[in-house]
Amino acid sequence: MEEASGGDRLNVVLFPWLAFGHLIPYLELGKRLAARGHAVTFLSTPRNVARLPPVPAHLSPRLRLVSLPLPAVDGLPEGAESTADVPPEKNELIKKALDGLASPFAAFLAGAVAGGRRPDWVVIDFSHSWVPAIADEHGVPCAAFQIVPGAMIAFLGSRSANAAHPRAAPEDFTAPPAWCASSFPPATAYRRHEAEWVAARFRPNASGMSDTDRMWEMDERTRFTIYRSCDELEPAGAGVFALLTDLFQRPAIPAGVLLQPESDDGHGGDDSEVLQWLDKQPSKSVIYVALGSETPLTAENLHELALGLHLAGVRFLWAFRKPSGISAPGTGVGELLPAGFESRTRGHGLVWTGWVPQVRVLAHGAVGAFLTHCGWGSTIEGLMFGHPLVMMPFVVDQGLIARTMAERGVGVEVARDDSDGSFGRGDVAAAVRRVMVEEEGKEFASNAERLKEAIGDQRRQDQYMDVLEGYLTRYKDNNSSS
């Protein structure tokens, strides 16, 4: 990888949605562009910028973080600047607050242009439908960066595809859409209990727009779309990036996995107890359990998950996060776990409520599998270390990711009631034992190891960035968006 020089150097502004599952991949993209010699400005709000991992010293001259003031919105708690700060039902108010960044963004861009630092690109997220009009006033082109798998955006489809094949009821999302039917495996669709979330993305929310309308308006004003993905992780044989290019009539460019380096998680502090506990466990004997900080879990979900882990009889490390939707008094960690659970599992299980350095845990030799909600970042991290997956998806892209990974033979889903998504302790135990104990677990582990080798090929990952860099260089002076 060579650094760009002279006229090849780009000035790129990155502007992600206000969720840490978006902020971190955008920052990783920024680091990779800065490492190639380009100037990068990362925009967010003051509290979000303060919570990001520090920029490595050798990149800080080329990667600057800039804060835009987030306006107050009725119904949002003071200081809430990301989806991590609110329960799921208030996420749409974060979108309303985001729309209030239009004026600060316009002032930032006008100042950059007046100061002789006109950006070559503004790279925006699904939610930023109003940015291209502002950028156009200053002659700055926009590109999109989707941090979800290409399969999800293909499943949602373009405005024209949805006009030709309308979908509204949740049942409409339980099979691949017409434009994907010939390329997607039949199972690559949402379950009934997941589909209501998808159907709701097509309806206006408190911000006055639907999420899909935001995405379509953003897409129609950007020159191409970048994806945090690669061919090796999408549904096998689906030709997802060619399909996306055809659907949206714009190039779809995979940027690779953009994995955050192990030593760059932004947290120091007291993680030694977790790693020391792992040091005492046999090789590949532990299943690491982490369901993210924003997964809409219920108290019953947590109860059955705990009892299922106990019933499975395997060693486990559980990165326990109290779900943001459970905030009533008397619902502390002790109340959310079955009575006596921690004492009964002491010795072979650890429930950890503090910070867990997930990448370092997944890299540890004692870990043999990963029980995950199938968030895209977590899934990539698990596979980068060759871990087979026990999968428990809930919302967003998680269901499609789980179907894709099951199709690739790297793990199993916990069996769920199709109508409401409920599961019991026996369902958890059966899935864990299939991966960790039973004979077929060897096949899951072998397939996961092969996928690790494919996505861990640094030369291949660098090639994805080479292609993206080429598009950024060529398209900045090309007024065509096709």
UniProtKB/TrEMBL annotation:
The keyword Glycosyltransferase applies. One of its GO terms (molecular function) is glycosyltransferase activity. Gene3D superfamilies: Glycogen Phosphorylase B. Its EC number is 2.4.1.-. Keywords: Glycosyltransferase, Transferase. Pfam families: UDPGT (PF00201). The keyword Glycosyltransferase applies. Belongs to the UDP-glycosyltransferase family. This is Glycosyltransferase. It comes from Urochloa decumbens.
